[in-house]
Amino acid sequence: MLRPALALLLLAMAAPAAAAPDPAGAVRALLATPFRVGGDAIGAAGLVTASALGLCADGLSLVDANRFTKPVLFGVTSTPVRWLALGVSQGSTGFLEGLRAEDVERLPEASETYLENAPGMGRIDTALTGLGALRIGLEDAVTGPALFALRAVGARGAAAAVDDFSRAERIRVLGPLVREPPLDSR
């Protein structure tokens, strides 16, 4: 466990320091890491769960909300499960955004994704976004301490590269933030 930290420290020391250490940036990176990782984990679990609940609701809707039974049954069992899936999705992505302190454009997922889609539509996308959020959580668990170490020793160029990598991965998986410039404009 000590070897990766030592290797990171040696890498940071080998990189030319563009400026003096940035203690405030280092502390921000260190303090933000558990919140980001926690938000990613909650978001990932919630999106995968919402996808599974959505699939269950889709299966139930084949029985109680098809064109023959809907006039009689009104989707009595599938509709509450769809609402539950929507609530889990929106709640977990709210935690993801809140703990990351970011406002992602495409989150929370639209209610139409759960309440009005045809059976099976959008469920795989939701599950893949959840798995991507899990991957971002693992990356945040590594890049947060790396940013701390790089900023603490003053390796601003390397810290900016790690920060840009983290931003690019978040945009690729979750999408851009509200009013965020595209990747190629920086």
The percentage helix is: over 70%
Q: Major sheet: size, sense and barrel closure?
A: none
Straight-line N-to-C gap: 35 Å
Q: Please tally the helical runs, counting DSSP H or I stretches of 4 or more residues.
A: 7
Instruction: Name the poorly predicted regions.
Output: none
The helix-and-strand class reads mainly alpha
Strand fraction band?
A: under 5%
Calculate the mean pLDDT score and round it.
81
Provide the succession of SSEs: HHHHHHH
Give a count of the beta strands, DSSP E runs of length 2 or more: 0
Sum up the overall morphology in one term. Answer: elongated
How many domain regions?
1
Measured on Cα atoms, how large is the radius of gyration? Answer: 21 Å
